[in-house]
Input
Amino acid sequence: MSETTATVSPDGKYLFFDRGVEKKGEDGSSYWESNIYWVDFNQLKKELLKRTNSN
Output
């Protein structure tokens, strides 16, 4: 599994990232299957700050 290309939206509200999984074809070849995900970046920032401040 690989997670790459994290990018924050221009308005700073969302974090987008790509998660890929290496797969094997019927012929034995390999390829990557990936999806793009997003999370609420404002909520993530709050959680990270909460964790940082609690240490």
User: Anything to note?
Assistant: Residues 2-54 form one domain. The chain has one helix and three strands. The first helix runs from residue 41 to 54. The chain has a mean pLDDT of 91.
